[in-house]
């Protein structure tokens, strides 16, 4: 009988804000500050049928984005 250990791993080292380009360092897989991470698979009735989009925003860019919403975000 043989037992194998898979050594290939993906380790997160930094996050880059897609809007402003700010680098957020990561230590032991934990970001130094919080970020908004969005992942979206577009459905059939969109112009992006089955495309996957993903992005990260730092807190400052998130605040700037939501401050322009016509309807404010819900805070719970």
Q: In a nutshell, what does this entry contain?
A:
The chain is mainly β and 76 residues long.
Index terms:
single chain, 76 residues, mainly beta, three-stranded antiparallel β-sheet, two-stranded antiparallel ribbon, 1 helix, 32% strand
Account of the 3D structure:
The chain has a domain of 38 residues. The longest helix is centred in the C-terminal third of the chain and has 9 residues. A three-stranded antiparallel β-sheet has the order 1-2-3, with no helix packed on it. A two-stranded antiparallel sheet has the order 4-5. The chain contains one helix and five strands. The mean pLDDT is 92. Strand 2 and strand 3 form a beta hairpin. It has 76 residues and is mainly beta. It starts with 13 loop residues before the first strand and ends in a 9-residue tail after the last helix.
């Amino acid at each position: 009988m043989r037992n194998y250990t898979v050594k290939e791993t993906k380790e997160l080292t930094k996050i880059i804000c897609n809007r402003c380009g700010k680098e957020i360092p990561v230590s032991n897989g934990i970001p130094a500050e919080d970020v908004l991470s969005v992942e979206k698979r577009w459905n059939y009735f969109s112009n992006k049928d089955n495309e996957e989009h993903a992005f990260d925003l730092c807190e400052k860019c998130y605040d700037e984005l939501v401050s322009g919403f016509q309807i404010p975000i819900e805070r719970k």
